[in-house]
Amino acid sequence: MASAKPSQLAARGPPWVKDNIESGSKKNNEIKKNEIKSALPVQEEAESPEQKADEPLSDVQEGLAKIQRRKNVFFNPHMRFCRDLSSLWVGTLPPLPSVLDGFCASGARGLRYKLENSNVDHVTFLDAQPEAIQLAESNARLNNIPEKQFRTMRADLNRLLGTGERFDLIEIDPFGTPVPYLAALMRCGSGMDERYVSVTATDTAVLCGAHAAACYKVYAARPLHSEVCHEAGLRILLANMARAAASEDWALEPQLCISHRHYFKVLARLRKGADGAVETAKTAMSYLVQCKHCLYHEMHASAADLRTECPECGKRMEWGGPVWGGKWAEPKSIERMIRLLSQRPYIEVGETGTVLKTILDECEGPALYYDLHELSSRHKRVIPRAEDVVGKLREAGFFAARTHFSSVAIRTDAGLEDVLAEMGKR
User: Fold this and answer.
1) How many Cβ atoms are within 10 Å of 246's Cβ, its own excluded?
2) Tell me: the pLDDT tens digits for 89-145?
3) 38 falls in which pLDDT band (50, 70, 90)?
4) What is the DSSP string of 333-351?
5) In 3-state terms, what secondary structure has residue 62?
6) How far apart are the C-alpha atoms of 372 and 357, rounded to whole Å?
7) Class of domain 6-23+56-332
8) What global pTM score does this model have?
9) Residue ranges of E strands in 243-339
10) Distance (Å, rounded) from C-alpha 92 to C-alpha 332?
11) Rounded to 5 degrees, what angle do the CA atoms 157, 159, 164 make?
12) Nearest to 297 by CA among 232, 213, 380
């Protein structure tokens, strides 16, 4: 039976991943129009008195920060969940004397990190857009942050990171891919033994395989464009970060990674040391294989171990990578975040707590997951409740859990036949 369309795969995800992959003629037409527009010279349009570029919008309250907005400075209200989660993570870290908000725009992230976390001493708001810097400074003053505890800089991120200035936490939330900034991000921090990075990638269509050629070019990796594309895409991003880190003698230790809406988020610790860097580089050389016919999947530590014939059905399997073959979340970090969440009434506890609990349950499991709807379609099984299948597999002695990557998928170390056995035949 034919596989599900990418648009169907996206629709099956939970609320926090439904928008990760979009395809179809409408989306492609939009992409083509945007590409054409970006290739043309920008023509400034005359502004009417009613619609000035710097016209203020209504202020918003997010977390403990009051944020002024302007039409000509980017602010995405849909990223509030990401900022909630990131600030929560910051609160679990050791003292952070110096934090860099690398693409600050309105300053929302840096403001929240400073206002909501006593372990943050000083924040640098950086942006190349002068209007953004003016607004970030205005917002810092609006929130009564002492002048000695923040500064604003109009500069290129790569140039600042190349000056040798040290930051204990660097936030990178660019438009699209973070790849152009990873080399400078990992090269800085001279003389430091440990530091933290928070990196966002919004080019999920590339990482998830909708634009495979771009993934080859930008990430030097082959994506898997299937129902497991979200985890495969995250692992491709992590592998790219790991290679950049290892080249500068940093070990990459992901503490929490998520796939949510249109982006991937990586919250990680960097530790200095050649031995750790070597292990990081090795971990970034793993590969994923999946059978598109029966949906069998596995991960291998190197290309030498790859096999092309499916052990279940004998059909040819597809591979993706290189990918990060290690853990993408640290249970202790998540547990600290869950404890801290109860102390922050200004955060939406329902969604945040659910996502953290789901990740805590699944993060010790094996790579990749089974989409129960896809299994039902391929193997003519009744579509069961995910919780029921998880419970039965646990009773049988297997690891089994829901996954935050998809609301209709489960992560388990049970074999394909064991999973199918728990799904009644039609």
Assistant:
1) 22
2) 999 999 999 999 999 999 999 999 999 999 999 999 999 999 999 999 999 999 999
3) very low
4) HHHHHHHHHTT-TTS-HHH
5) strand
6) 21
7) alpha beta
8) 0.87
9) 250-260, 263-272, 286-290, 297-300, 318-323
10) 10
11) 105
12) 232
